[in-house]
Amino acid sequence: MGSVRTVVELDGVRVEYGELVAVRDLSLSVRDGELFCLLGPSGCGKTTTLRTIAGFESPDTGQVVLDGRTVTDLAPYARDCATVFQDWALFPNKTVIENVAFGQKMAGVGKTERREQARDHLETVEMGDYEDARPAELSGGQKQRIALARSLAVNPNVLLLDEPLSNLDKRLRETMQLEIKEIQERLDTPMVYVTHDQEEAFTLADRIGVMNDGRLVQVGDPETVYDDPVDQFVESFLGNSNFLSGRVVGSGTDRHDTARRAVTVEFPAVGAETQLSAANSLATGDEVTASVRPEIVELSPLSGGTAVSPDGGTPEADTTEQHNTDIEQGAGNRMALIGTVLDVVYRGSSIRYQVGVDTNESVELFVERSVARAPDLSAGDRVRLSWDITAVYYFGPDGARIRV
Amino acid sequence: MSDESPTRTDGAGETARPGPTTGQSLFRRVNVGRWLFRAGVGTVFVFLLAPVVVVAVTSFGDSITPSFPPAEFSTRWYESFLESSRWQRAARNSLIAAVGTTVLATVAGTTAALGVSNLSARAEGAVLGLAVLPLLVPGVVLGSSLLVFLGEFGLQQSYLAVIAAHSLWATPLAFSVVRASLSRFDPRLREAALDLGASPTRAFVEVVAPNIRSGLLAAALIAFVVSLQEFVMTLFVSGRDTRTIPVLAWNELRNTLDPVVSVVSTLLVLVVVLAVIIGTLVVGIERLAADT
Questions:
Q1: Which chain B residue's Cα is nearest to A102?
Q2: Please, which of A131, A209, B190, B234 could form a disulfide with A97 given CB 3.0 to 4.6 Å?
Q3: Is B198 on the interface with A (CB under 8 A)?
Q4: What is the domain extent for residue B94?
Q5: Residue B16 lies in a domain
Q6: What CATH number does the domain containing A86 carry?
Q7: What ipTM score was computed for the predicted complex, to two decimals?
Q8: Closest CA–CA distance from residue A100 to any residue of chain B (Å)
Q9: Number of domains forming the structure of chain A
Q10: What distance in Å separates residue A212's CA from the closest CA in chain B?
């Protein structure tokens, strides 16, 4: 990669509102030219983090560095960044072109020149025909474009976007995501984009920073964050998964490598036990959660029929022990359960199956398939569920990932 | 529900008058209530406005003492008002005080309202309590203490003394009006302006003020009217050369029932009505009513 210039650097930033700590000792760096998504649930501190970069919040501790210059104590108007607000914050007393030219007016650029520049930016967002309109006359999508043009018009070193699409309907949102991505790639302006929508983050981001409870939990490119979650929060926030809770019932040595320590975890809900090796942090009695993603679950009708597998998983070393007779022993590294389809939900392009497991009626697993590859099942059908146990993610009592 | 007859669903109409159709009697009853309400409001208005009308009519009388209704009509008291240097001087003083108060109270009230909007809820409550305090202190107390206080600096009987006294009342009112207006203002707009490079002052001029201008105008209007009609404190702090119309009117009425007082009162009412009309034309009556 070489050394890419850092345009935004937060170093140990902490923001408190009285008793409430909105951002806890957060450090991150945004590279030049990238689109960095801050992703997290509402109230996780992602907007506060963005407002700290913009200068609307001053951190209680820590430093904010923009383009190599420490700006921690500088006012928003003294920083070379621009914000696109969630509700766009267009000036209702000004026309579209006056809105877009506002930044250059403040910079002391003459009227004809700044209007000319503003027109160029209106063309960029395909709003050239609306220069004399008032913001109140525009639709949400149009306002969004004007807000984007207005921020781009000050040629910011970094563009900050605070859930700019959350007030738009789904279809328009998806169109605008692609346009923002396209503009970002064309202008090469680094962007920090705050969102609570993981799909949006995956669509847009070069890198994603997942936030929870004021902390930056994980940073990485979308594939890494999705394939290698550091904890249970990231796993549950980035996608829907089936979580099974278990408990450590004993410890000993690994069956395959006696030099290693391993613990035995029981999942009473599905009547299964698994041995986890290299899990030194766990002691007997600790709670362990397994995440079985719907895409790894193979679902097939019990009476013959062909199994529909999402991918042809290759068999690997077995670490499973099975005691419960209800469970079929599949290929060495697979776990299999018998259950009944409780519900089939059509979700447009995909179909979601809700399956109750025989061993414990309260345990429901869901499996999603695209319509083209969906098995023909209906509620009440008996099915066989199986999955490659090496594709399961395990999390310890503190939620941290247990790497096996 | 569905099998009930329509007559049973609107029983209110039935008790009023068992007419041929209950729908009609219900309509009649509502109408009677509405007209009673209108008559009540009308009566209140008549009682409130009657003195104004009486004063206006007597100002056009011809006799030495004001009488209602006047035996003969003339504009001779208007002429003697225009010829009286004392009244002219008082009118000028009133105008100076009102303009000064308008500027001082609106600026102070607006800056206070802007300042309060950044405070925590508890601090804001404390400031609000302090801000309305002058309204709760009797004018006599304020007037006499102002006289003593300003006397220390040799400022008694000056225009500054009158403007300061009037602003003591007008500022809390202007503050409340601007604060109400600011509460409907989206703070993100100001942030957006700062974000795009505007200094706080430019952000106020370019974005905040235009969006709360009805509130600013209402505040100015209230300050103007408060100053024009203030009497008690002015009586204490003004002197021969700075006394305003209400003070002079009171002076004149102490000796005789001078019909010029009716003229002056009518003109005062006219000025206030004109001010409200101008305000209405600029921002619209609904916005003005909502902000005051």
A1: B196
A2: A131
A3: yes
A4: 84-291
A5: no
A6: 3.40.50.300
A7: 0.81
A8: 10
A9: 3
A10: 25
Q: In chain A, what residues touch B186 (CB-CB under 8 Å)?
A: 87, 89
Helices (H) and strands (E) in chain A, counts: 8, 22
* Number of structural domains found in chain B: 1
Instruction: For residue A56, list chain B residues with Cβ-Cβ distance below 8 A.
Output: 191, 194-195
Amino acid at A330: G
On the 0-12 / 13-18 / 19+ scale of CB atoms within 10 A, B20 is: exposed
**3-state SS assignment for residue B255:** helix
Residue A193 shares a structural domain with residue A264? no
- Within-domain flag for A1: no
For residue A82, what is the nearest residue in chain B, using CA coordinates? B195
- DSSP letters along A256-303, please? S-TTSEEEEEEEGGGTEEEEEET-TT--TT-EEEEEE-GGG-EEEESS
Q: Is A102's Cβ below 8 Å from some Cβ in B?
A: yes
Give me the CATH number covering residue A336: 2.40.50.100
Considering only CB atoms, B197 lies closest to which of A56, A93, A106, namely A106
CB contacts of A90 in chain B (<8 Å) are 192
Q: Does A89 touch chain B (CB under 8 A)?
A: yes
Residue A25 lies in a domain: yes
Find the domain containing A283 and state its range.
242-291+393-402
pLDDT by 10s per residue, chain A, length 404: 456 789 999 999 999 988 899 999 999 999 999 999 999 999 999 999 999 999 999 999 999 999 999 999 999 999 999 999 999 999 999 999 999 999 999 999 999 999 999 999 999 999 999 999 999 999 999 999 999 999 999 999 999 999 999 989 989 999 999 999 999 999 999 999 999 999 999 999 999 999 999 999 999 999 999 999 999 999 999 888 999 989 988 887 777 777 777 888 888 877 788 888 766 678 888 899 999 998 888 888 886 544 444 443 333 333 333 333 334 444 457 888 888 898 898 888 888 898 988 877 667 888 888 888 788 888 888 999 888 888 899 999 888 998 87
Residue of A nearest to B203 (CA): A106
Contact A324, A271 (CB under 8 A): yes
